[in-house]
Amino acid sequence: xxxxxxxxxxxxxxTAATAAVMSVAVATGPAIASAHVHVDADGAxxxxxxxxxxxxxxxxxxxxxxxxxxxxxxxxxxxRTEVMPGxxxxxxxxxxxxxxxxxxxxxxxxxxxxxxxxxxFHVxxxxxxQPTVTLPATQTYSDGTVVRWDQPPxxxxxxxxxxxxxxxxxxxxxxxxxxxxxxxxxTATATAEPGATAQPGAAAAAGPDDTARxxxxxxxxxxxxxxxxxxxxxRRT
Length: 237
What we know:
Blueprint: H1 2-28, E1 38-40, E2 49-57, E3 66-76, E4 79-81, E5 87-94, E6 99-107, E7 118-126, E8 132-134, E9 137-141, E10 146-149, E11 166-168, H2 200-236
Antiparallel strand pairs: 1-2, 2-7, 3-6, 3-9, 4-7, 5-6, 8-11, 9-10
Helix pairs in contact: 1-2
């Protein structure tokens, strides 16, 4: 009988520990991805002129320096780089179309990004009138290694080994006109009144976070119950 109680207690403690671990995993979400080339722009909207910031980490396994970084632009009508000490920038222009196709930064001798550093590259561009912009990049190291950041997301939404930097544009297109040339209605933020019924869209948007909180809470409750039951079984024996 005592052996049965001990086995039951061990099983309950294992279940409680597993539930606690699951609750932490649900609450914290997926682990942070490894360092990749990333692009960001504050307040960027379709058709606007914005400053793109590329965060470029050194990832050489041999300790080589990043000495060149190039970004393919979606044939933007204008582009302008920021002065960056130790680096020179070159714009590749399409004279016939009057657009800029790419920008390349090259480090001066004895300058580069080591494996324990990162650098920020800034370029001001006029963005295309679309919701997202993909900006394939190429990173070149001092030992001749070339890494192309140009892979699309994997089927199912997974991240490839060298994902292409992608920028999501928010807000209305520049000019504020819709497809019919009419001014676009301002975006309103709905505020729920006491007793009001939530709209389906709002409920759907909040669903994943609420589900994660309920799962995390349920797992913690299960862990607590298992622990109490296990202690009770030990005392009875």
